[in-house]
Amino acid sequence: MITSCTYIEKYTKKEVVQVVDTVIDFSKVDALPVFPKCKEIPSREKQGICFQIEMSSYIYALFQEYELLINQEINDTVFVKLIVDVNGFTKLSSIKMDSTTKQLVPKFDSILRISLQKLPKLEPAIKRDVPVATEFTLPIIIKN
After folding, report:
1. CA–CA separation, 13 vs 96, rounded Å?
2. DSSP per position, 105-130
3. Which has fewest Cβ within 10 Å: 17, 59, 91, 125?
4. How far is CA 116 from CA 33, 69, 127, 141, in A?
5. Alpha-carbon distance 32 to 40, whole Å?
6. Mean pLDDT across the stretch 33-49?
């Protein structure tokens, strides 16, 4: 018995491959995380500004609750990376601070962690109608 390639081709199923021509940019989201207070703002751009203001003022207010005794003049910017997960909870990713600042304010990271636990639950960022985790950097200026 002899068969040819055309015989096999005739009786095998061919799957149709659908080509997707959409490129998804995973470095950007469609909607930023939102505080409950900012949710009613119709413009996404203004929601982002509201988010920045609320996050900064909330953390500043929580730091005001603690009495930090610093015996030396300090003027530094600490870069705090935060993650808002898909459930809307904020977590600390990393802290970038000068070694001198770290020595002068050793409880900074502890206070920040406690402060983040007190943050209200946020609306997570949205990408293609799906909640996604986002990471962002918050600069905190320490000056006395």
Report:
1. 58
2. -TTHHHHHHHHHHTSPPPBPEEETTE
3. 17
4. 15, 22, 24, 17
5. 14
6. 88
Which pTM does this prediction carry? 0.73
Q: Note the pLDDT of residue 8.
A: 54
**Could you give the strand order of the β-sheet that contains 134-143, starting from the edge strand earlier in sequence?**
90-96, 75-84, 134-143
Residue bearing tokens 């005001």: 64
Which one-letter DSSP state was computed for residue 28? S
Residue 75, token pair as written in the block: 């003027």
What phi, psi does 137 have (nearest 5°)? -105, 130
Residues 6+ apart with CB under 8 A from 19: none
Residue type, 12: T
